[in-house]
Amino acid sequence: MKINLTQSSFVKLLCAALLAVAASGYAAENNAGAEKAATTAAQTWLTEIDNGDYTQSWQEASAFFRSAVTKDKWKTSLETVRKPLGKLTSRKVKKAQSAASLPGAPDGQYVVVQFDTVFADKPSAVETVTFMLENDGQWRAAGYFIK
Q: What is the model's pTM?
């Protein structure tokens, strides 16, 4: 099969290809910005938990999170699971990944951040924090898991 491209068709095809490359670069840059902003918000939020400010961390979580977990249940869960791990020794970002949808959550803009964490009584832990972009433009916690 022989394809005969006119100069005009070739220029159009080239422009479409360049737009696709530019759009993917913009999306990657946009994701990197979202990942950085969400990671910063996650670190601030985790500091509240580290300090034992469990009620405050619930109040600053996303509406989705607050509708799924009551303030009392959140506080009890952290006192049962997080408090026994002891004081934070170190926490560093392992990876951050953007997502438009997650199982069991409404479609939106999410960033899942994993941290390699060391606690006084648990020397090797992985914290996974999911943050979502809310309508007011703020990144807020939508989930938290320690392994």
A: 0.78
